[in-house]
Structures are given as C-alpha cells and as structure tokens.
Specification:
It is a single chain. The chain is built from 7 helices and no strands. The termini are far apart. It is elongated, with a radius of gyration of 16 Å.
Length: about 200
C-alpha cells in the first residue's frame, strides 16, 4: 500500500486545533478501515464496511462544507483545485453507492472495494498535495483552528450514506430525513467557526 502522507510543517498540531491535522488523521482512519474490511469476514466485515461508509460520507461532507470554500477563497486557482476534487468525490461516491448495494460476501465485493480504495487513496493524495499544503500556507493558527471546529461541526451533522451527484454538504444534508437538518448544519458550522 502506498503511503498517503507526506510530512509537512505543522504536522505535530493536534486535530483539535488544526484542520489539516484533523483531516490527515481521518485519512489514516479511512486507510485502517479499508484494511479492517478486507481482513474481516461475515458479520464483522459488514460492520466494518458500515463504519467505512459512514466515515467516508462524514469526511467528504465536512470537506465540502468547510475546506473547499476556504480553498476557493484563499488559494490561487482554488476554483480549479476544488472542481477537480469534487469530480473525484463524485466518482468515489458512485463507486461506493454501487458497492453499498452488494452483500459483503458477494464475490464482486472485494474487487470493487479494492478499486474504491485505489480511487480514495488517489483522491486523498490530491487533497494533501493541492489543498492541505495550500491551507497550511494561507491560514494562520487561528484560521486552522476555526476550520477544524467547522469540520467537527459538519461531521456531527453529516449523512450516514453517500449521495452520488450531490457534492455540497447543504444538498447532502437536504437528502436526510429532516429538512431542518440543513439549516442546523449550516448554523453549527458557522457557530463553530465563529462567524455566526
């Protein structure tokens, strides 16, 4: 397995006060869950896969709500960087959704899981190279902490299943069981980031 992480200045920051450290930890958690799903069998594989689906959905929703808007506003060429990440996310969500329709014991499951893993790893490397490094360069400690609070708030409200074709947190949340969840998510993120 190729390593997703290239150490950067500030990597010793804790996830509580640095959005990049938080997202890097999540990338590690995602890698570990892929390992767990592949190694498990039966009900244990199903449970590990459910946790992987939730973490991927939460992670991407948090990035869509907090990270991508920051990159669009503060990084030269940010719109292009974000659009490329959204295309990767859309593709991964489609694969994940198709995979989610299979039983984990199905012979097609593991090959499709491995294809998803390769796509997710490539996406994570692109995030680290084209977004995270620039966030580090363009955000002071206060902004990194504010973004981390925003990611945590978005995570608390994120959907438990991915919705292919919906690459914004507001739209993801709107597909949830309670329409008011969209406003609560937006409010939670803004409050956590000190702008609401």
């Amino acid at each position: 397995m190729s390593e997703l992480h290239t150490p950067q200045a500030g990597d010793d920051a804790t996830p509580d006060d640095d959005v990049v450290a938080l997202l890097m930890r999540q990338h590690g958690d995602i890698r570990n869950l892929f390992d767990e799903v592949e190694a498990a069998e039966g009900d244990a594989r199903q449970e590990a896969f459910r946790r992987l689906v939730r973490l991927l959905a939460v992670h991407e929703t948090a990035e869509e709500e907090v990270v991508h808007p920051f990159v669009r506003r503060n990084v030269a060429g940010g719109d292009e960087v974000v659009e490329a990440r959204l295309a990767e996310e859309r593709s991964a969500k489609e694969t994940l959704s198709a995979l989610d329709d299979l039983e984990t014991g199905d012979p097609k499951f593991l090959p499709r899981l491995r294809a998803l893993r390769a796509d997710v790893q490539e996406h994570a490397r692109a995030e680290e190279r084209y977004e995270f490094i620039h966030i580090r360069r363009n955000a002071d400690a206060g902004a990194l902490a504010s973004l981390a609070r925003g990611v945590k708030a978005a995570e608390a409200m994120a959907p438990t299943r991915p919705h292919p074709g919906v690459e914004s947190a507001a739209a993801n949340v709107a597909l949830g069981p309670v329409a008011a969840l969209m406003d609560r998510t937006r409010d939670a993120v803004r409050k956590a980031m000190g702008s609401g």
